[in-house]
Amino acid sequence: MKEDFLHYLWKFQKFRGESLYTSAREKVEVLVSGQHNTLSGPDFFNAKLRIDGQLWAGNVEVHVKSSDWYVHHHEKDMAYDNVILHVVWDDDMPVFRNDNSVVPAVELKHLVPETVYENYDSLLKNGHNFINCEREIGEVDRFLRDNYLERLFFERLEQKSFAVFRDLEDSKNDWEAVFFRNLMKNFGLKVNGDSFRSIADSVSYNIVRKVQEDPLQLEALLFGQAGLLEENEAPDSYMKALKKEYAYLKRKFDLSRTGIVPPRFHRLRPANFPTLRLSQLADLYFTRRTLFASAMEADGVSDFYDLFDGKASEYWENHYTFGKISGNRAKSISRSFIDLLLINTVIPVKFCYARHHGKDVNAAILDIAANLNPEKNRITDKYGALGVKAENARDSQALLQLYNTYCSENRCVECTIGHQLLKQ
Predict the structure, then answer these.
(1) pTM for the complete prediction?
(2) Which of 326, 346, 370 is the last residue of a domain?
(3) Are residues 95 and 195 in the same domain?
(4) Mean of the pLDDT values across residues 23-29?
(5) Residue 358 has pLDDT above 90, yes or no
(6) Domain containing 328: what range?
(7) b/e sequence 86-102, b meaning 16+ C-beta within 10 Å
(8) Is residue 201 part of a domain?
């Protein structure tokens, strides 16, 4: 028996019969079961109950055994003084508050139909290879599943919004700086995301504003802070020019590289080399002086493709690294890469920017995500093999949220799909 199953029983009132009684045979009427709390403190806040005819408002605590109250030392924690009901599977002993008053207890083990626990036990002990409900998820009603995926998509955005608003606070409400930091991180992808973000954090965005009218200075700023200009002897005139500009910028703005994570080339496809990505980003900020404002105003996928249609500077047409000539080819930003920027940077910032200004752009954001190709990764591939295929970016983001937040944490009783399977 696990407490999360008891949380499920109380939250959805899955009991046999219409009446509840405490162990002291006092009738309990549940007016409001309370708000489920997954953090520290009682398990359900702000419940409203009528116990033996008396109306009570307060919190509900859930345990497998009543004695767990003392195992968890709740008798020493003032946060539990306002518990009005103790919901347990086995009421093995009375429990007292700090003032020595008894906490009424409801024992559930005789009130739950066997099929409910059997469904729960079967779901959690399914001998799965990927997720608990892998044998059943493909058969869940499509309408219910799609609605849940939409909710999960916005739940994932809510989680991402914490970091965005933290950046906003750190930058003293400079939304352009927030956008630049997040765009830098996602230009680095997984391998160099932390590196590119550390570069962005090392430079005040006011400096970027001052140098973005000069493409050479902007590239020199990014390459220099990345530590890519540290060779004693520059192999060609382009690198010499960059080194000269960076030396000037370093003195002028008192730049420091403390705390910067060096970018990596190892195991990267040449198209994702940090040299090319930093040059492409510099090109965007040189050619799109109002990149942030334009991104916030755009609402169609084609508009975003036009907005982020950039390329590395001329030198990189026949180079991937400094000093090594390669075949001639323009190093443009691909549409698949723009899709990733939209999913991981533009949509989260657009969501937060609208919320900050009291606007609702949920429908527009959903439309953008629904018109982007889904991400391809191990998790979405495994869901697809189970019959839950990601048709677009909304679905792939939702499936990542489903797996990371619910499936991998065995939070089946808090999942709409798990809830549906337990009802069967």
Answers:
(1) 0.80
(2) 370
(3) no
(4) 94
(5) yes
(6) 171-370
(7) bbbbebeeebeeeeeee
(8) yes
